[in-house]
Structure formats: structure tokens, C-alpha cells
Design brief:
178 residues, mainly alpha, 0% strand
Length: 178
């Protein structure tokens, strides 16, 4: 809101908030002070909000904020508007994320898929060497080990890893140096 709009709508917004929430409006002298402070608060803390949005915030959650018999004050107003702005920020961020195009899809080559499978084998074996005990050995590890000729199709996967551990093998695959 512009400063002109704030001056024009300050008292009207307070009356609408009173109607929506049922909060007590202070009498004459205090009302003049409240209107003045409310207008300043709108400019300082809520410059990006318009009248309709402020009304909406109070209709949505203003009725759940308890005034505990106090007259309407800036603290009560903040109890509605601060959480509303937080929710608005999250929603705005979510909508902005949806506008972003999805990441480009990439189809891996067979060689890249094989290298990923080898990496799974290396991670699993190094975990065993470091004392990470798996209750079940992932069966898909056998496919790449057989394909690479590191083990025979008829060999048991668990026996293969036990043998490598007992032999003190540091690696399943020999390091390649260039």
C-alpha cells in the first residue's frame, strides 16, 4: 500500500479486523493512538500487503488468536500477519520452483551403467572391509562381477566376498593408473 492508501484505510482496516475477530477496540483517545501506530506499522512491517490481503489473513486465522480480554493492539495484529507472511513466502517459493523447467533428462550409456554398478560393488566391499555388516548382499552386484569375469556365474556371491575378505584383498577391481 502507498502511504496515501495507508492513511485512507488504517481506521477502516481496524474496524474490519474488529468485526472479523471480535477484538475490543479501545475508546476514543486510545483509538486515535492505535490508528496512528497501526498506520505506521503497516508502512514499516507490511509494505507489501494490500487491504484485501490483510482482510484475508484475518478471516483465515484471526479468529483463532485469543485476545485474553485485552483491547486490540499491534501485538495481536502481528500474531496474525507474521505467520501469514511466512506461509505466503513458502507458497511463493513453491510456486516459483514449479515455474522452473525440470532438469534435462539424460540417458546413460551401457558403459556408464556398468561403471555405476562397479561403483556399487566397490562401495559394498569397502564397507565390509570397514566393518559395515549387511544382512543381505544385494544380488544385482553379481551381474557386473560375472560380466567382468571377476567371478563365475555358478559361484555364490556371499562366498565370493568372504574369500576376498579372508585373502586380505584391498580392492575387488585392480586400480587403473594412467
Amino acid at each position: 500500500m502507498t502511504e496515501q492508501e495507508v492513511l485512507m484505510w488504517g481506521k477502516t482496516l481496524l474496524l474490519k479486523i474488529h468485526v472479523i475477530t471480535g477484538w475490543t477496540i479501545p475508546d476514543s483517545d486510545l483509538l486515535v493512538i492505535l490508528v496512528d501506530q497501526f498506520q505506521k506499522k503497516l508502512v514499516e512491517s507490511y509494505p507489501d500487503m494490500n487491504v484485501d490481503e490483510i482482510e484475508y489473513a484475518f478471516r483465515q486465522s484471526g479468529t483463532t488468536v485469543k485476545d485474553w480480554g485485552k483491547a486490540m493492539n499491534l501485538s495481536l495484529i502481528d500474531e496474525v500477519l507474521i505467520p501469514y507472511l511466512g506461509e505466503r513466502k513458502i507458497l511463493s517459493h513453491t510456486l516459483e520452483e514449479r515455474k522452473q523447467p525440470p532438469p534435462e533428462q539424460r540417458i546413460y550409456t551401457d558403459a556408464e551403467l556398468d561403471n555405476l554398478a562397479r561403483w556399487d560393488v566397490v562401495r559394498f566391499y569397502q564397507g565390509l572391509r570397514n566393518g559395515v555388516i549387511q544382512h543381505k548382499i544385494p544380488e544385482h552386484l553379481k551381474d557386473i562381477l560375472v560380466k567382468d569375469g571377476v567371478m563365475k556365474p555358478e559361484d555364490a556371491l556371499s562366498a565370493f566376498f568372504v574369500e576376498k575378505l579372508e585373502n586380505g584383498s584391498k580392492n575387488i577391481y585392480a586400480p587403473v593408473y594412467k
